[in-house]
Amino acid sequence: MRLICPCCGWRDRREFTYMGADDYLHRPVPDAPPEAWDEYLHNRTNPAGAARDLWYHDPCGTWVCITRDTITHAVTDGTRLEDAQ
Amino acid sequence: MRRRDSGGSALERARSLSFQFDGRELQGFEGDTLASALLAGGVRLVGRSFKYHRPRGVMSAGSEEPNALVELLRDGVYHPNIRATTQELHMGLQARAQNCWPSARRDVMAVNDWLSPFLGAGFYYKTFMWPRAFWEHLYEPLIRRAAGLGRLPQSHQDAPHEKAFAFCDLLVIGAGPAGLMAALTAARAGADVILAEEDRQMGGRLLSDHGQIDGMPGGTWAAGVVAELASLPNVRLMPRTSVFGAYDGGVYGALERGALHMAAPARTPRECYWRITAKRVVLASGALERPIAHPDNDRPGVMLLGAVASYWQRFAVDPGRVVVFGNNDHALATAKALAADGMDIRAYIDPRDGLATDAPFTVYAGAEVIGTRGRHGLQHVTLRHKGREFRMDADTLALSGGWNPSLHLACHMNGRPVWDDTIAAFIPRPGMVPDMEAIGAAAGQFSTHAALESGARAAAGALDALGLRAPECAFPQAEDAPYAIQPLWQVQGKGRAWLDFANDVTTRDVALAAREGFASVEHMKRYTTQGMAPDQGKSSNMGALAVLADATGGTIAGTGTTTFRPPFVPVSIAALGAGGYGKSFAPERLTTSDAQARAMGAPMIEAGLWYRPSYFPQADDRDWRDACNREALHVRNAVGVCDVSTLGKIDLQGPDAARFLDFVYTNTMSSLKPGRVRYGLMLREDGHVMDDGTCARLGDQHFLITTTTAAAGEVMRHLDFVQQAFCADWAVRLISVTEAWAQFAIAGPLADEVLGHIFGDLPELPFMGCAPVDLGAVAGRLFRISFSGERGYELAVPARYGADLFRQLVALAEGLGGGAYGMEALNVLRIEKGFVTHAEIDGRVTAFDLGLQGMVSPRKDFIGRAASQRAGLTGAARLQLVGLRPVNAQAEITAGAHLYAPDQPARAAFGQGHVKSVCYSPTLQSWLALALVRNGRARRGERLRLDDGLRGIRVDVEICNPVFFDPDGGRMRD
Amino acid sequence: MIELTPAPAFAALSLPVTGAGTRIDALPPARITALAPYCGQLQALHALLGGFPEPGQVLELDGLRLVWAGRDLAFAFGEALPTGIEAHAALTDQSDGWAGLSLTGPGAEALLARRLPFDVRRMAVPGAARSLLGHMPVLVIALGRDEFELWLWRSMAACVLHHLTPV
Asked: Which residues contact residue B630 at a Cβ distance below 8 angstroms, ignoring those fewer than 6 apart?
């Protein structure tokens, strides 16, 4: 498996650490109700098809939002988090 | 069988090699495979089959070989399941037949063959069912002894294997006519090409067949192409390399045979496991010839026709009197060519009627082979022709049931091939693996012309995708004979007709599976074990599913294939694990004091990837506890020195650094004054504790935080995430400086005296203060922090000075009646003080659980704040950090033990908590523990029973304050 | 007052090592300053330094080699940092954290290419890349097709060398 680092280009999966779905980017406001935090922390859609998730490119220290297809395993995009919001 | 006096394109006859098989001395030539040398030496019986221990001989000339699996002696150890057909001969090679005892000729387990009526498909499933208790002690050991192909070496293998990476524009798999043409076309256009070929020599079938290309023998044409490719800097030729798997993202696994399989210089890796990443791939893996399932088709001497041709042409092996049994035009053409070349072909047998009979041997059209004879090797063949049965003497029966495209790699991503009636075989569908194209025989195009043409076309397509231009080059002329076949999946007759030679599966077994309800191809495979041997059914899958289709009344296309999975050829675990064992299993991180600590005799223990000294032994120590007690008392009574460089150190700078720290710590760091240090706690966003450490403010916009040793990487990733995800526009930068600094704890009542020696006069530093310091010309940092509860400092210097500073600090401490202390003593000291580590911060505890709720600021947002306020993460139901002391202070207690009320049984339902860390405190003369106990803080003074069922320890303990020693902290503060 | 003697990172290891057309030797200790530009300060830094490396770039500037070393990060090799730079970037001294090896000779590129999980042959010259050797972080600098520098964490010096040397 190969992933895209926006700094380094296509790299082997061994250089990355997985975090989870890109839901983690959408942190609720501090005083959001508990349901919003529950949604943020625990509930995921598990899509068949296009999915976005977060990977850390350990060698260069970049967090990457990867777009990939959970059916074909095709990886199509990798962006810095600022560009993924 | 014998060696011809001349010929053999692969051989160097000037270099004769002697070798041993089953203890017998034999001769071969440079260029031989073990199989060709055995055949030339007249050895037909090379092993026994898996189940019935039937005599078996060499059947093929490639990696698909089901029979000729031998054990090879290398470095004093026998390696099992080496295919004689790919093993290169070298001087002094020693091999022996496997799966037989005492020898291949006289094998006692051959009795299974007489029992075969009782050992059909599913025999084990049906027989070894009951009584259940017999399984473990009787059936399983019995089956294990009788089963299995070969024996594993019983010793650790540390001979070198290599793992390597490679990248290319175009990976060409297979160097037959199609692969060579594709590689040549792409190479001439300047593409970065890897050409991988299983064989030692490139050329594929051009090396063994009789066709011409551009008026020259195919082998000569191939040699010319290979020479041109070898001369090009943009081409890497990888002979002896089997591409065994296709993976996501254009990654391919390949196994290069090395020192295990050939004569090679010392230190050459036995095998190299390649990971090749290719933008485009051309699969030119050729086709595998099918045997024919006729009665008694498994006798040594029954071979594939293509293999007979290959041994004749490349290795000058004369197969003696040959009978050919084929069902396709290619077989007849090959037989004619071989006869013209001098092979003693006695007859050609073909089930098809109306064949032209212009051959120099008898052609029996509309005929079938219905039996063979010869105990350890073929002696004659029985055929049925025009209703008449008769025998013919023969040394070799050459079978050709047609050809199966080698499409395995194209199916590795779960694509299913399609059935092609014209060649009676499955062919790959386009696009089954992204960016891969199957060509030539691998795509079911069997003529040399079609192979060359598809090679050039596929390369042009790949070049186009790569943005390169295909060169103009003259297209070579070659035969374009049509291929006609009449499928022949089984010959009816007396006796067993074998499909899977390695696993002893017959046509009847497959039919039986269908009758017993295992009619799906995946079920049939598992019930009969067809296709589950080391060859993975390369020569039997097609036949088996045809027989299954027949038995179930379905079509072959409708029956479908089993799932193709990597690896295409067996890959040793040692090769897969290359670069991942011994020193390479995990990186070793060594501190600057490592050499000194080892010189002092300290046993080293792992802490994350680091190695740290456990303790520093002395001659009169009875055990490690003596050393640990001494070192702990040094710190309490004099001064101790400990390397703490392994803690993670992260440097944060910028106008928004303080704001950032407020966001990642539970407590407030922005109020910290420059020159001061504060203890800090970080949570995960789910409200649980991630890590703890110190935060020093070196300047107004400059902080240095520490992490625990094991969590350093995780914390760095976490901080990077928070910064990049939520604070990307803040003016703050963070970077690890763990490696840049060597840092030593100097702790104990005499710590100031050590510093006095170092600095001349002692820098004034309050408790939890920090300051830059000069050590002569070296700029260091001094922190007055303590993880031992004593007056203590941590002194940091650039790493290059670490070794010398540690040496001098230890000498100073020893001069004051103290010395170095290791991890054991460090652990005692921190437990005495109730300081937590990741033994307590186990991922499930909250700040409340640790009694650190006072550090959780209610006045700001921070990572983990919202979740930490969830119901259930605080309160009396939580397991809370407490101290435990055994009622009898000398009663040993253990970490991991569970806690129960004294009158309740040791069952989960009654659990009150568990022990996280224990030590024996030489200061307090007692065993101590830190534990998590339900509502523990409110239960001080209560007694519990500590129960370690694993070690049989039951001790009464009392809940107490987790700070056992100097609870008000005066020793470290004042 | 104490006097301290420095120890090189590869002190206990026998270098150079030669084989497979490659000579591996320790590089002399370098002055390395990590430069991490603050948000929005890249232009100012550019002006002050005369350039700032893009991903993969190595810039040879006046008395200074600037090597791209990670996300928004460059390593400055050399002493001559312009004054006032700390207003635009976080500066940390990494001289002691990283140990350097030189790999030279006609086999150097092939050796690195076998060991590293990215295509070393496609590196620009001069050029830089971050990657993992085994599981160990490295900074690779290509100075020529037969001249490379491999910078690694000091604590991993022995382990890197073990992983690198031909089996």
From this structure: B618, B621
